[in-house]
Amino acid sequence: MPDPRIEHLEDFTAHEWCNALIFDPSITHVHKRHVFGKGHEWNSLFTRSLFTNDAIRAFLNLYKPGKGQRRAVDRNSIVTGEPPKFRNVAPSDYDKELRRRTAKEDVQHNLTDPEAPENTVLVSMGGELDGGIGRLHGGVTASLLDQAMGALLMHYYESSNATTELRVKYLKAVETPCILKVRARISREVGRWIETAGWVEDGEGTVYAEGWGSFVLAKLEPSAKM
């Protein structure tokens, strides 16, 4: 039986603001949900349970490393590669990351820096994730923030991670169906302890929710040292 899960990326490409985001040269990694066979996929909430034509119709993760890094944009291809794999993920510079964690320096990040690392989750929401009639369930909003933040840390620290705290301030009801972008940035780091901030927005400047998260990075495994 064929897999019914299809990313309806046409939901994004029909909007100029989505195209501007997808083909932004400062966003160097664009990937879809990583779908494995049943029983072999992590994050199955997004890759299986909510992956329907009436829930999350389309999903893209867009990572901006900042610090002046850019990519050569190919407008014939939306996706730049595969997402990071949850299992066996390890820092490319193991020794550098080990030193950073061991030092446990309290580093504050500037959330307004235009060249700060940022992760964006772009989603097309159907009508089966509502709380009130025609309004997105608040728990889904929180899950999107958690997803964007965790993916940011996966890219930036090249490490799996676990959420320890998530706070959400709801500012405006989200009417469905809709397209949302969920942005996340790092606000503070102390060794394995990382704090983040995030925003749920549309393409016209409306902010529906703000979030603040705390995460702990997975322990470094000596066997992962290259």
Automatic annotation (TrEMBL):
SUPFAM superfamilies: Thioesterase/thiol ester dehydrase-isomerase (SSF54637)
Gene3D superfamilies assigned: Hotdog Thioesterase
Pfam families: 4HBT (PF03061)
Domain Thioesterase stretches: 134-203
Protein name: Thioesterase domain-containing protein
